[in-house]
């Protein structure tokens, strides 16, 4: 039984991966489909503003541009840019093959080669990749470019001819059969039967294989011929999901009922259908509601002969109205309302008279297990406990420039994690907020930058702090790691991706700590023990002036220090502020240096008292080692007291001895 279940899961995952690959060729080019749809809506002879000259773009776009874009995208997925180029070349053969007189129908119309492009692009790239592997590493130095260019050109030339003569008849046969099948369903008012397949497929994440792999190419072919296609609406109709969510608002219970209104808004206006999948999984009987609503919508769309001019992606009511054909507004509106009503009518008694726990957290977890990754949308409506959080292996601190605040915060938390005994399990790095990627389990960011960090890292746990040096949130993170690691067998922790860290020169002081700091970045001439400032701006000017006089920066860098402070405070806690420039000001840095000012009276730093002002200029990442040591110094009360009591610059340098070593 277990083996059978595993085989079914493997088959489902394989289909999902295939669907994802198909959609990965279409989705990046949806904007081009929409552009073509707008052109057809406005400027064809039957459009709102007929224009003979502009209309000349409509045919070439659907015949050449869109298939070539799809082929290039598919090829690039397999073999980077070279794969994209060779895929586009080979696809040109099947495009021109379908333009030959013998393949043009009685209506003078040839099918756009979207399916041909989805086959030619990745297939040609894969074959070319295998071919190149035969001489990889064997080409004499100096001849690489010659071999690369001629091999691609010769393969593309041969592949284009092969696709013209070999693939063209196959693709036309497939398109003819698919077109006849669709025409049969539409002419006999049976298209509504497809909802029995499409609606369950959506919930189990197989919709991409159906929608973008089959429906969009067929719909575009139909739209090019008739100006619209009902096939665009088969999956995009938000009515079935809306009806289910409305039923939860009335008859649901617990967190499911409480979150249903927000989910309904995201689903209907945002077009993120994924948001209602966990609600269906809580009560599998609700698949009947989704199917019934879908059938009602498709039936009305077919009877009223409505359609869209181009894909509606995402499936928002706004996107649907933006692409609807000029004669279809009423029909589409009635279909959406009817599918919502039917779905609600079926879902309401199911929720009212059947037993269920309405455990949204469990349903979300089940959905993410099927999907194979965390859902940022559905997960936002659940309340997962620490045990259900992703296992924390990689932590990133993010600040505006990735040079100062984040490096020190990362050092503080790294030390806490090491002291807790998890230094070999959890890697802590730092990055500029604009360079974040969704490959971390936990992101720590200043509260002022939280909204910029979340879109780039939707799969991560987000922790906001207002104090990088002594935030109580660090202890919460350590405790969460402790809970996750307790009771687990000893395993080898994954090694941090040092290559990625190295790509961002300010990405990780974990890497830079192993490098030499080069020259001393803290010197007697950049230390002031009896400083006085009446404002934060004056303190920044003084710290910047020391860097300028040391020859480390130009005056423009000091200006950027003020600009940086306007975006987010550089106050670290424990009386420390570390003003530094923006990421764009790196050109004004001549060399790494740090200035140290101890004020006789604290200055107000955004509502916090700052006594120690440490100006930072990092030219090559060597300052990150210094920041790590500063974090250790200011993280301990006894060393902060030593800094307060120091009488000479030599005493300061002695305290910072590890910095210069």
From TrEMBL:
<feature type="transmembrane region" description="Helical">
    <location>
        <begin position="85"/>
        <end position="104"/>
    </location>
</feature>
<keyword id="KW-0808">Transferase</keyword>
<feature type="transmembrane region" description="Helical">
    <location>
        <begin position="149"/>
        <end position="167"/>
    </location>
</feature>
<feature type="transmembrane region" description="Helical">
    <location>
        <begin position="286"/>
        <end position="308"/>
    </location>
</feature>
<feature type="transmembrane region" description="Helical">
    <location>
        <begin position="328"/>
        <end position="351"/>
    </location>
</feature>
<dbReference type="InterPro" id="IPR003501">
    <property type="entry name" value="PTS_EIIB_2/3"/>
</dbReference>
<dbReference type="GO" id="GO:0009401">
    <property type="term" value="P:phosphoenolpyruvate-dependent sugar phosphotransferase system"/>
</dbReference>
<dbReference type="InterPro" id="IPR029503">
    <property type="entry name" value="PTS_EIIB_mannitol"/>
</dbReference>
<feature type="transmembrane region" description="Helical">
    <location>
        <begin position="57"/>
        <end position="78"/>
    </location>
</feature>
<dbReference type="GO" id="GO:0022872">
    <property type="term" value="F:protein-N(PI)-phosphohistidine-mannitol phosphotransferase system transmembrane transporter activity"/>
</dbReference>
<keyword id="KW-0812">Transmembrane</keyword>
<keyword id="KW-0813">Transport</keyword>
<comment type="subunit">
    <text>Homodimer.</text>
</comment>
<feature type="domain" description="PTS EIIC type-2">
    <location>
        <begin position="18"/>
        <end position="360"/>
    </location>
</feature>
<feature type="region of interest" description="Disordered">
    <location>
        <begin position="483"/>
        <end position="517"/>
    </location>
</feature>
<dbReference type="InterPro" id="IPR013014">
    <property type="entry name" value="PTS_EIIC_2"/>
</dbReference>
<dbReference type="InterPro" id="IPR002178">
    <property type="entry name" value="PTS_EIIA_type-2_dom"/>
</dbReference>
<dbReference type="InterPro" id="IPR050893">
    <property type="entry name" value="Sugar_PTS"/>
</dbReference>
<dbReference type="Pfam" id="PF00359">
    <property type="entry name" value="PTS_EIIA_2"/>
</dbReference>
<dbReference type="GO" id="GO:0090563">
    <property type="term" value="F:protein-phosphocysteine-sugar phosphotransferase activity"/>
</dbReference>
<dbReference type="InterPro" id="IPR003352">
    <property type="entry name" value="PTS_EIIC"/>
</dbReference>
<keyword id="KW-0598">Phosphotransferase system</keyword>
<keyword id="KW-0597">Phosphoprotein</keyword>
<keyword id="KW-0472">Membrane</keyword>
<keyword id="KW-0418">Kinase</keyword>
<dbReference type="InterPro" id="IPR013011">
    <property type="entry name" value="PTS_EIIB_2"/>
</dbReference>
<keyword id="KW-0997">Cell inner membrane</keyword>
<keyword id="KW-1133">Transmembrane helix</keyword>
<feature type="domain" description="PTS EIIA type-2">
    <location>
        <begin position="520"/>
        <end position="659"/>
    </location>
</feature>
<dbReference type="GO" id="GO:0005886">
    <property type="term" value="C:plasma membrane"/>
</dbReference>
<dbReference type="Pfam" id="PF02378">
    <property type="entry name" value="PTS_EIIC"/>
</dbReference>
<dbReference type="InterPro" id="IPR036095">
    <property type="entry name" value="PTS_EIIB-like_sf"/>
</dbReference>
<keyword id="KW-1003">Cell membrane</keyword>
<comment type="function">
    <text>The phosphoenolpyruvate-dependent sugar phosphotransferase system (sugar PTS), a major carbohydrate active transport system, catalyzes the phosphorylation of incoming sugar substrates concomitantly with their translocation across the cell membrane. The enzyme II CmtAB PTS system is involved in D-mannitol transport.</text>
</comment>
<dbReference type="Pfam" id="PF02302">
    <property type="entry name" value="PTS_IIB"/>
</dbReference>
<feature type="transmembrane region" description="Helical">
    <location>
        <begin position="21"/>
        <end position="45"/>
    </location>
</feature>
<protein>
    <recommendedName>
        <fullName>Mannitol-specific phosphotransferase enzyme IIA component</fullName>
        <ecNumber>2.7.1.197</ecNumber>
    </recommendedName>
</protein>
<feature type="compositionally biased region" description="Polar residues">
    <location>
        <begin position="483"/>
        <end position="493"/>
    </location>
</feature>
<dbReference type="InterPro" id="IPR016152">
    <property type="entry name" value="PTrfase/Anion_transptr"/>
</dbReference>
<feature type="domain" description="PTS EIIB type-2">
    <location>
        <begin position="393"/>
        <end position="489"/>
    </location>
</feature>
<keyword id="KW-0762">Sugar transport</keyword>
<dbReference type="GO" id="GO:0016301">
    <property type="term" value="F:kinase activity"/>
</dbReference>
């Amino acid at each position: 039984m277990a083996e059978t279940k595993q085989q079914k899961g493997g088959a489902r995952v394989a289909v999902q991966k295939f669907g994802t690959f198909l959609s990965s060729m279409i989705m990046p080019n949806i904007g081009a489909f929409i552009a073509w749809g707008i052109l057809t809506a406005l400027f064809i002879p039957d459009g709102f503003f007929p224009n003979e000259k502009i209309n000349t773009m409509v045919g070439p776009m659907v015949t050449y541009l869109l298939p070539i874009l799809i082929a290039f995208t598919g090829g690039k997925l397999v073999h980077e840019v070279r794969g994209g180029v060779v895929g586009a070349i080979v696809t040109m053969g099947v495009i021109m093959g379908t333009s030959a007189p013998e393949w043009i129908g009685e209506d003078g119309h040839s099918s756009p080669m979207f399916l041909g492009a989805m086959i030619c692009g990745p297939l040609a790239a894969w074959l070319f990749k295998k071919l190149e592997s035969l001489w990889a590493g064997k080409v004499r130095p100096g001849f690489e470019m010659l071999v690369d260019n001629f091999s691609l050109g010769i393969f593309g030339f041969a592949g284009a001819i092969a696709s013209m003569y070999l693939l063209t008849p196959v693709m036309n046969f497939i398109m003819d059969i698919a077109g006849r099948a669709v025409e049969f369903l539409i002419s006999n008012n049976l298209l509504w039967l497809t909802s029995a397949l499409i609606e369950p497929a959506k919930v189990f994440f197989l919709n991409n294989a159906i929608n973008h792999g089959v429906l969009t190419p067929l719909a575009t072919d139909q739209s090019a011929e008739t100006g619209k296609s009902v096939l665009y609406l088969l999956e995009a109709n938000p009515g079935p999901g809306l009806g289910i969510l409305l039923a939860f608002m009335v008859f649901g219970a617990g967190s499911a009922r409480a979150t249903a209104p927000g989910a309904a808004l995201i689903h209907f206006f945002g077009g993120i259908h994924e948001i209602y999948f966990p609600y269906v999984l809580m009560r599998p009987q609700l698949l009947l509601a989704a199917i019934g609503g879908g059938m009602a919508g498709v039936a009305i769309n077919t009877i009223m002969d409505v359609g869209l001019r181009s894909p509606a992606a995402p499936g928002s009511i706004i996107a649907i109205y933006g692409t609807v054909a000029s004669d279809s507004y009423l029909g589409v509106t009635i279909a959406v309302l009817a599918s919502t009503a039917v779905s609600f009518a079926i879902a309401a008694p199911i929720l009212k008279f059947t037993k269920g726990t309405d455990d949204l957290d469990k349903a979300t977890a089940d959905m993410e297990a099927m999907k194979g990754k965390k859902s940022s949308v559905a997960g936002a409506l659940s309340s997962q406990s620490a045990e259900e959080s992703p296992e924390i292996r990689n932590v990133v601190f993010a600040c505006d420039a990735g040079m100062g605040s984040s490096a020190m915060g990362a050092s503080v938390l790294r030390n806490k994690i090491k002291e807790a005994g998890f230094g070999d399990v959890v890697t802590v790095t730092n990055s500029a907020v604009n360079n974040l990627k969704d490959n971390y389990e936990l992101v720590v960011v200043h509260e002022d930058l939280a909204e910029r960090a979340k879109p780039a890292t939707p799969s991560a746990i987000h922790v906001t702090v207002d104090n990088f040096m002594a935030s109580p949130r660090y202890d919460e993170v350590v405790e969460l790691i402790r809970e996750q690691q307790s009771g687990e067998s000893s395993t080898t922790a994954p090694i941090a991706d040092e290559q990625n860290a190295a790509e961002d020169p300010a990405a990780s002081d974990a890497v830079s700590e192993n490098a030499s700091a080069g020259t001393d970045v803290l010197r007697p001439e950049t230390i002031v023990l009896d400083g006085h400032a009446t404002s934060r701006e004056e303190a920044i000017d003084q710290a910047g002036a020391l860097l300028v006089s040391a020859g480390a920066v130009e005056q423009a860098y000091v200006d950027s220090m003020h600009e940086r402070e306007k975006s987010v405070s550089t106050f670290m806690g424990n009386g420390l502020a570390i003003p530094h420039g923006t990421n764009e000001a790196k050109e004004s840095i001549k060399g790494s240096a740090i200035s140290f000012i101890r004020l006789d009276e604290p200055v107000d730093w955004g509502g916090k008292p700052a006594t120690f002002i440490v100006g930072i200029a990092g030219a090559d990442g060597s300052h990150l080692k210094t920041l790590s040591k500063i974090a250790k110094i200011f993280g301990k009360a006894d060393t902060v007291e030593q800094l307060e009591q120091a009488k000479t610059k030599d005493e300061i340098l002695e305290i910072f001895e590890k910095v210069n070593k």
